[in-house]
Every structure is written in C-alpha cells, then in structure tokens.
Design brief:
By secondary structure, the protein is α/β, with parallel strands linked by helices. The strands form 4 sheets. A 7-stranded mixed beta sheet has the order 5-4-3-2-1-14-15. The chain has a 6-stranded mixed beta sheet with strand order 6-7-8-9-12-13, covered by helices on one side.
Length: 466
C-alpha cells in the first residue's frame, strides 16, 4: 500500500543543447540532493538529457545513441534504493523518434511515456506518441503529460491527455516542460493548468527549465496547484532551483503546501530575460567575454549595463569607435558610463579607415550613404576586435536601429525592444537589478540619457553603432 506522504523533488535547471554528459551530470547532482531530502521521485524538465530545444541535433544517430546510453547509465544507478527519476530525453523506438520521459527506478527503465501533442517544430522532429496511462512510483499513480500535452486547442488535433490520465487512474499530474519566456506567458500556463485541474479534479505539477539557448530564453517559474486550485508551490523565475515537496494524502486526494515565490513580471522580467540570454549565449558558446561599441546613447548604455549584469564588469570591454559623426560630449559620456559600471574602455579613432574606403570610390557619397559606410566600418572593426580576444561582439541597436541597419554584432539584446521600452528599462535598472546580477547597484545610467529622446535615426549627429 502506498504511503500517505509522497516527496517529489523538482529540479528547475538549465541544460545545454548537445551537452549530454554535462546534462547527465546535472541529473546526478539533483538526485544526490533528492536522496538527501528523502524524496521518492526526482523530476527534470522536457528533453533534459539532450538539452532543449534540441532542434536537428536529435536527428543525429550518434546523439540519440548517447542519450540512450546516458538514460541506461542513470537507470542502473537507481538501483541504490534512492528516489526514482523522471527525466526527458529523445527516444528511438520501433523506427520512430519520440519526445519522451523515462522513469528510472530500481536499476531499470521502469516506464517510458511519449509526448502526444506536438507543436509545428515538434512534428518535424518527433513522432506523435499515443496517449497512455499513469506510471507507478512507490505505489502512487503519476500521470505524465509532457509540455503541450496539457493544452487543448479546438482548432488543432491536440488530445486531452490529462483526461485520459485521469480516466486511467492517475492520482497526480506531473508536467515536465521546456517553455520559452514570453511577456505575460505565465497567465497562459496557469490558465491551461487550471483548466486541466478543473476537468480532472487532480493536482498538477508543472516543471520548466531555465536558461538561454539560441534565440530563446527559459524562465523556469515552475509551480504546483492543488486540486482545489490553491497554489501549492511557486518557484522563482530565471534562476536554477531544486526543492523537495512533501505531498500528503487526504480524503480528497493529494495536497501540498510549499514555498511560494513572488515572480518578477513586466519590464523586470524582460530585463532579467535578456541578462540570462546573454550570459548563456557567452557561456554555452565558449566566448571569453563581450565587446560592446560605446556610443554615448541610451541604447548603448542599457546594453552595457545588461552585459555587466550578465557577466560581471571584468568580462566586458567597451570600445569607443570615434569618427566624424561622433561629438566629443558623446565620447565623454560613453567613457563615463564605462567607468560607472566598472567596465574597461578604450577609444579607437576610425576616421582614417573611413577615408581609405572613400578613396576607393569614384565619387563622394551622399550624407545617408556616408553614414552607412561609417556604421559598417565600426561594425567590421568591432567584430574584428572581438575575434582577436575570443569574445562576442554585442550590438546595441533596438527595433528602430534594426530598421536602418544600425546594429552590428553577434548578439543583440535589444533587438525586439522598442525605443520607448529602452527608456523604461534604463530607468528601471537605476533602481533595481536582478537578484543574480553581477553589475554594480544603483544609478548606473546617467539620468540625462534617460530624459533625452532616443535616437536610432541615421540623422543623429552623435550616433555610433555597436
């Protein structure tokens, strides 16, 4: 007979796509904590072994084979009497590749469950799995719904996976997910969870990953809801977090009362997302740090603050590429900003390089074309400087700069940020920073930059592109 207390360890962690050995090591580390906490089950996010999103990596037979070997090794290690492990992995079976969750317990792969509801990208990579019943862990019947399996869209072919799990005897729904951050996306997640709980009358645990991968960032913000829709637990956003929850069986089923973190939202969440994305883009791709073109404009100031928060000032290098269109006050402001953030900076004149290009041309350029030439010279030099030191060139353009081609770099933290939001984010950073930010506290961006209208146009006299 199952016990009346069931302990689940939630591992809200940051995998790296393709780093199977590194991701597997994180599973082992989380299981050690779960074992110390006396947990019955450790849960990790969707496709954790391969890293999410895996994209075409999972179509490589060597990757699939390495993932299978990792799962088999973890399964053997579960013979120690410690907690069972529910972990996401690609799985090849009967000639098809599935987005799977493997239950590892008592030295074996005790069960496999395959994702049923696949988004468009998922259908290109994976076969759709059949809706299946719950898995048994220490006598408790756990329904496994992976990612979109808790969503129902009447315009699509999505099945009600949770309904099937409830009808086949599930006592608790667990949802390993890999869902990117979008502003306001937390409401959509909660709405889907509430709908499934209302239908099934079962509590639900939703576990998301953290970290940046490619052009996506994952916010974690995992949660659990009791069957009465009360919040059982809320994990923080944008940080790794491993916690063990004690679920108690009562007359109305399983319930839990755990820590409820206050989530950041709005501009704070947008800022934190960009810091995490930049940090992981640098770390997961092996860059030594970043190089940023300093312009004396608010976009450059905000990007520099984000870089210092992501990596620490000592891994950020500011470069003032002074040219014919940059005023001395703008240059002075750029250097002052770097000092305020503790970032090393230097001034490199580019007038001679621009003149060399102009000498090659058969005639003089119009004003707009010359502005573009200066921008391209700056961008080329910035990329070259970054390459010399193994660093990443960070562009400083916002959405308005993108329209006129004024952003050059290997990463653009403000590429989807409007000029108005740039001002809001800069003002925000002067009074707040993310809990894990490595940059200095306080007013790091000059108030006069925030008060001055942003200028992404090619007519700006002191514009300089990163």
């Amino acid at each position: 007979m199952a016990a009346d207390v069931f302990r689940i360890t939630l591992a809200q962690l940051n995998p790296t796509a393709g780093d199977i050995s590194g991701n597997t090591a994180k599973v082992r580390e989380a299981r050690a904590k779960a074992l110390a906490d006396g947990a019955d089950l450790l849960v990790l996010p969707e496709l954790f072994i391969a890293g999410y999103p895996p994209r075409d990596l999972v179509r490589d037979p060597a990757v699939e084979s390495a993932c299978r070997a990792a799962i088999e090794a973890l399964a053997r290690e579960s013979a120690d009497g410690g907690p069972a492990v529910l972990v996401g992995t690609p799985w090849f079976e009967d000639g098809r590749l599935y987005n799977a969750c493997a239950l590892l317990d008592s030295g074996r792969i005790a069960a496999l469950r395959f994702k049923t509801n696949l988004p468009d990208e998922g259908t290109r990579l994976f076969a759709r799995g059949p809706a299946a019943g719950p898995v048994s862990v220490r006598g408790v019947r756990i329904g496994v719904a992976i990612g979109e399996d808790i969503r129902i869209d009447e315009s699509s072919e999505y099945e009600n996976v949770v309904e099937t799990l409830a009808e086949t005897g599930a006592e608790l729904i667990v949802v390993p997910a890999g869902e990117p951050y979008i502003r306001g996306g937390g409401d959509r997640r909660l709405s889907a969870a509430v709908a499934r709980i209302t239908e099934s009358e079962l509590p639900l645990v939703w576990l998301n990953q953290t970290g940046g991968q490619g052009n996506e960032v994952f916010d974690g913000a995992s949660f659990a809801l009791n069957a009465d829709l009360s919040m059982a637990v809320q994990l923080p956003a944008f940080v790794d977090h491993v916690t063990t929850l004690a679920w108690s069986r009562g007359d109305d089923g399983w319930a839990c009362r755990g820590p409820v973190a206050t989530l950041i939202e709005g501009d704070e969440a947008d800022y934190a997302a960009r810091v995490v994305s930049l940090r992981d883009h640098v770390g997961k791709n092996g860059f030594t740090g970043v190089v940023i073109g300093l312009t004396g404009r608010i976009e450059s100031a905000l990007a520099l603050a984000m870089a210092a928060d992501a990596l620490g000032p000592d891994r950020v290098r500011g470069v003032v590429l002074s040219g014919p269109d940059m005023s001395q006050p703008a240059q002075d402001a750029a250097e002052a900003l770097a000092r305020q953030l503790g970032v090393s900076s230097e001034v490199l004149p580019i007038a001679a390089a621009v003149e060399d290009f102009e000498r090659i041309l058969p005639g003089p350029l119009a004003s707009g074309a010359r502005h573009d030439l200066v921008a391209r010279v700056r961008g080329t030099l910035l990329l070259a400087l970054a390459s010399l030191s193994g660093a990443l060139a960070v562009a400083v353009g916002d959405t308005s700069d993108q329209l006129v081609g004024d952003a050059t770099g290997g990463f653009t933290p403000l590429e989807d940020v409007t000029a108005a939001q740039v001002i809001r984010l800069a003002a925000l950073r002067n009074r707040w920073k993310p809990a894990d930010a490595l940059g200095p506290s306080g007013g790091v961006i000059p108030p006069d930059l925030i008060a001055r209208p942003s200028s992404g146009s090619r007519a700006s006299s002191d514009a300089i592109e990163g």
